[in-house]
Design a protein that fits this description.
single chain, 149 residues, 9-stranded antiparallel sheet, 20% helix
Length: 149
């Protein structure tokens, strides 16, 4: 009887790790060699006279390769001027529960949006969670870019 329980335990543990491995492989296929974009903020500036360039939309762009992720923080003004605030290459890996871990020195990301960002693949979508200035995390959905940014 003990032998049957032991075999069942080994079977379920093996099954659990096999399923985890399959999900991890699917997540890597979902991410590698793809670019994802999310609108992270919109800033509107009041001006005494009409100024189409006063507002900014902020974007986070993630370009995944097998081992690296290129992280770009970009602002685009209302008149189309682009400003790159952060552009760096980091190592990445999958953690538990499909969480994407970006590996970097803390000082290197000190003033960036990704510093407090949690990334994961959820229901086939790349999502990020960040507290920003609020108590509860705000969700950012990323869309796959077909143009590279």
């Amino acid at each position: 009887m003990k032998s049957n329980n032991y075999l069942k335990s080994v079977f379920f543990i093996t099954l659990f790790y096999s399923v985890q491995s399959i999900f991890a492989q699917q997540a890597e296929v979902f991410l590698v060699d793809k670019t994802f974009v999310s609108n992270t903020d919109y800033i509107c500036e009041l001006t005494p006279e009409y100024d189409p360039c006063a507002g900014l939309q902020s974007y986070l762009i993630l370009e995944f390769t097998t081992n690296d992720v290129f992280v770009i923080e970009k602002d685009i003004s209302g008149c189309g001027a682009e400003y790159i605030n952060y552009n760096a290459k980091h190592k990445w890996c999958l953690g538990t529960k499909m969480q994407i871990l970006i590996q970097s020195e803390e000082e290197e990301m000190k003033y960036t949006f990704i510093k407090d960002l949690t990334l994961m693949v959820k229901d086939g979508v790349l999502v990020g969670y960040s507290k920003l200035n609020s108590e509860s995390p705000k969700q950012f959905d990323f869309e796959q870019s077909l143009t590279g940014d």
